Amino acid sequence: MSGAGKVVAVTGASGYIASWIVKLLLQRGYTVKASVREPNESRKTAHLTSLDGAKERLQLFKANLLEEGSFESCLEGCEGVFHTASPFYHDIKDPQAELLDPAIKGTLNVLNSVAKFPSIKRVVLTSSIAAVAYNGKPRTPDVVVDETWFSDPNLCKESQLWYVLSKTLAEDAAWKFVHEKGIDMVTINPAMVIGPLLQPTLNTSAAAILNLINGAQAYNNLSLGWVNVKDVANAHIQAFEIPSANGRYCLVERVAHYAEVVKMLRELYPSLELPEKCADEKPLVPIYQVSKEKAKSLGIEYIPLETSLKETVESLKEKKFVSF
Ligand SMILES: NC(=O)c1ccc[n+]([C@@H]2O[C@H](COP(=O)([O-])OP(=O)(O)OC[C@H]3O[C@@H](n4cnc5c(N)ncnc54)[C@H](OP(=O)(O)O)[C@@H]3O)[C@@H](O)[C@H]2O)c1
């Protein structure tokens, strides 16, 4: 019980990744102060308050990234902060208001409050591979992406990759802030996160798998890194607990093209109707590698993609997003 007697905060606790962070923290004996936007909406909180240990050691706080100071009561008295809240969706009309402001201003809002509480020893920020890999360098099978890569905001803007831009600018703003204030911060930079859902709502990365098994005619011509949500949550906690943890940690079990993901799903579920063709006629976007060296130092032994896919599909079935 590495967390016994310790108090930590998790922002955006009702979300997909944060819910797993809360679950594992409670399992390890931590007392968790969890921020949610709507603490009185049971659809957003029931899956948290029913976790083992929640009755004794979970407290909910209302906070919004866009309301200055709203995280203070949540962060007060904590030793560690897991800042995971940030919008992740693609279907947006106003990138500034819907993605960029909550990601960037929201992160600075949380960090401003962190700076007020000397009890906070470390912040673990949920960044993304989005803040790492989009810098215009070619990504081919012999290229190894690692933590020294930083996405290029101009390129993100030109390509209108608004979510990627939001994560890139938020991480950059966070590093500048913590360097100036002398705050200890570690970032976790996962790729597409899949695996079982704890929350009752559908999150964006699980939706990518649901789309494939729910009648899509074609798969995207895209190669992505994939990682299991349990490994991602565990990495966050390891990054808090291991004193020497520092800087950024890319988390990718493997990079696979959607064509390969569909092939794996077909092997797992032979009777399922899956897309037969690629969305365009261009050559398949090549895979690349992502370094596992730093993640290894957190003790992460990745759950294989096949298992993650199976767990995602089973969870989507259990939560009735799909039936077969
Ligand atoms: N899933 C992935 O593949 C992936 C990969 C890399 C990084 N990430 C990062 O992981 C984090 C969590 O993402 P997720 O996949 O778990 O998505 P999610 O389930 O949609 O969770 C996002 C969380 O952010 C909260 N949030 C959004 N806007 C907010 C605001 N204005 N004020 C307060 N909270 C707000 C949401 O709160 P509500 O519940 O109230 O809406 C929700 O709890 C994000 O930082 C994301 O960028 C995700």
TrEMBL record:
GO molecular function, one term: oxidoreductase activity, acting on the CH-OH group of donors, NAD or NADP as acceptor
Entry's family note: Belongs to the NAD(P)-dependent epimerase/dehydratase family. Dihydroflavonol-4-reductase subfamily.
UniProt keyword terms in alphabetical order: NADP, Oxidoreductase
Pfam families: Epimerase (PF01370)
Keyword Oxidoreductase assigned: yes
Domain of life of the organism encoding this protein: Eukaryota
This protein's name: NAD-dependent epimerase/dehydratase domain-containing protein
NAD-dependent epimerase/dehydratase domain: residues covered: 8-245
